[in-house]
Amino acid sequence: MGATKTDHFTESQNELAILAKALGHPARIAIMEYLLKVDACICGDIVNELPLSQPTVSQHLKELKNAGLIKGSIEGNSICYCINEPGLEKIKGFFEYISEHLAKKKNECC
Amino acid sequence: MGATKTDHFTESQNELAILAKALGHPARIAIMEYLLKVDACICGDIVNELPLSQPTVSQHLKELKNAGLIKGSIEGNSICYCINEPGLEKIKGFFEYISEHLAKKKNECC
DNA sequence: TATTTATATTGCAATATTACGATATAAAAT
DNA sequence: ATTTTATATCGTAATATTGCAATATAAATA
């Protein structure tokens, strides 16, 4: 085996998993943090920020983009990346939902 | 290659990535949702909720536990699982942090 | 004590991810 | 037109993940 049984889960569960998975690598967390740190969209120089080769960074950027967490537009010579809010809000919503429910019921047993 | 270059990133980045990665599978999203849906900790019957074999579910539970997203305590014959709030709050905080920063700067360029 | 019930571990095959060198592409600068 | 600069894609090796059958463990029950 080895392939995830995507068919057996709801669309929402698969979507959330894709978003979470995209952030399941420190390089991709670092990219998100960097996009946020710099007070603008980043046109270039993401590669220099990370301890990884250019092709590897490019691949990580692609995964974040596919998951809908960042977006990139061609800006002359380079590419301008920034965070894609809708994707981010979707996964943020999942954690808020859990957090709210937990607050309501105050689990006792564990 | 194939191994993540954990050393090159900060502890915080690695921690967040571990938490996100643990949720990067629809079965594990489903487990979290189920733990929340039932108004208590689950002692047993998680296996019957998922379209996966018992060993596979056990493995997914282990991963969520290792990441610090759930906790389980032995309850006689079965094991009682529930959500581990600190782990959840940590990753929730990351998304809130991003969301707040985004609201502040209202990206213009992309 | 033997059996049932609930969960974990082991072992392994199929597939996915990570990383990077080499190479491609395409706009900018010379 | 050629070279430089920025990024993407291809190919591939190393490693990790997914899933399950078989088996182990350990408490509950008969």
Overall average pLDDT of chain A? 90
Radius of gyration of chain A: 17 Å
The low-confidence runs of chain A, each spanning 5 or more residues with pLDDT under 50, are: none
The quaternary state of the protein chains shown equals homodimer
User: Most extensive chain contact?
Assistant: A-B, 56 and 56 residues
Largest sheet of chain A: 3 strands, antiparallel
Shape of chain A: globular
β content of chain A, as a range? Answer: 5-15%
Helix tally of chain A? 5
Distance separating the two termini of chain A = 34 Å
Give the helix level of chain A as a range of percent: 55-70%
Question: Which key phrases capture this entry?
Answer:
homodimer, 110 residues, alpha+beta, 3-stranded antiparallel beta sheet, globular, DNA-binding
Structure characterization notes:
The structure is a homodimer of 110-residue chains. Chain A is 57% helix and 13% strand. By secondary structure, chain A is an alpha+beta fold. A three-stranded antiparallel beta sheet of chain A has the order 1-3-2. The radius of gyration of chain A is 17 Å and the shape is globular. The termini of chain A are far apart. The mean pLDDT of chain A is 90. At the A-B interface, helix 1, helix 2, strand 2, strand 3 and helix 5 of A face helix 1, helix 2, strand 2, strand 3 and helix 5 of B. The structure holds a DNA duplex (30 and 30 nucleotides).
Topology:
The structure is a homodimer of 110-residue chains.
Chain A: H1 11-22, H2 26-37, E1 42-43, H3 46-49, H4 54-67, E2 70-75, E3 78-83, H5 85-105
Antiparallel strand pairs in A: 1-3, 2-3
Chain A binds a DNA duplex (30 and 30 nucleotides) through helix 4.
